Amino acid sequence: MRAADVMTSEVITVGENASVQEAAKLMAEHGISAVPVVDRDKRVVGMVSEGDLLHRAETGTERRRAWWLEMVASTNQLAGEYVKSHSGSVKDVMKRDVISVTEETTVADIAILLETSRIKRVPVLREGKLVGIVSRANLVRALAMTIKERPSGAEADDRAIRDRLLAELKAQKWAEVSPANIMVKDGVVHLWSSYYSDQEKRALVVASESIPGVRRVEDHMRPVPAYLV
Length: 229
Prior knowledge:
Elements: H1 3-6, E1 14-15, H2 20-30, E2 34-38, E3 44-49, H3 67-72, H4 75-86, H5 90-93, E4 101-102, H6 107-117, E5 121-126, E6 129-135, H7 136-144, H8 154-170, E7 182-185, E8 188-191, E9 194-195, H9 198-209, E10 216-219, E11 222-223
Parallel strand pairs: 1-2, 4-5, 8-10, 9-11
Antiparallel strand pairs: 2-3, 5-6, 7-8
């Protein structure tokens, strides 16, 4: 399995000149813990996470040190902490050294990268531009659908099934499904999306069953919470 098979394609991003409040609002509204920061050409220039917004002057949580620790801290360190807790610009609080992968990177390599780098997600780039993101949750979903290894060439078959199903759903006005919520393994389609009605849920299953090569459809879908309808 590669990054392209498990990544979330519809990535929430923020511009490098956006405000800290805008970034915080995006993360809160979409229930995510970090967003890639991109420039005008959609190239990733940084990453801002909840951890980067933990110590802020607006909420009274800026970092405070004991007087003796401030004595030994360098002026550069103290100045940097001040900027991060008081600046209103994303470019001043984001992490600039962003680790990334390509669409061809294997999920095994991504898992090692997330563990060794102690990060929760990694952007997927194509010719330097953002095309997706792989998080720990994506890898857990990939693990959930692994039952046994298939013969050589099976991954290509799964990829073809997934591509045909995504194309079919894209043509349907009723289908609002993120590609990250559809996975195919051993000819079995795994549906992880949320649905608004039983008819929509059934339609997703029917569309999946209609794709040539599909052996079975596994329904992991959940209804959209009533307060979001």
